[in-house]
Write a structure and sequence with these properties.
It comes from Kitasatospora phosalacinea. This protein has 152 residues and is α+β, with helices and mostly antiparallel strands. The protein is built from 4 helices and 3 strands. Strands 1-2-3 form a 3-stranded antiparallel beta sheet. A hairpin with a 2-residue loop joins strand 1 and strand 2. Helix 2 runs antiparallel to helix 3.
Length: 152
Amino acid sequence: MSGRGAEQRGDSRTGERGSFAIEAAVLVPVVLSFALMAVAAGRLQTTGAVVDAAARAGARAASLARSPEAARQDAADAVGQALAARSVKCAAEPVGEPEYGSLATSGGTLTTVTVRVSCTVPLSDLIGLDGVPGSKTVTGTFTSVLDRYRGN
């Protein structure tokens, strides 16, 4: 009697069996992909900050060097150390030749050195899953005034 009464009342719970499993099978991959995209975006932001810090360290090291050759080497060493400290691995050499310029101030003209760091990181490193195709290039630039008291 209870079975017939449920049918007469219009109770349709018996027809919905398994629909939760189907909904979960459809929604879980979508939610998981959004979560992975959020993780990748956060890791990309963090990697960008590390590359900016590496450019800052490279420019400061180059500003203390006594020759252009030493500036190039010191900048490359400082950038390499900054990236290695945060476990960022670039596909190619991340730093190029330091660029010299000038800055006009009320106290006179100052010589500057600019270091540009460009790091191509595989997306699989950013997300933390092997086999993810593609890569992203993150660039950081910093300019530092040459230290007047560095010596010659």
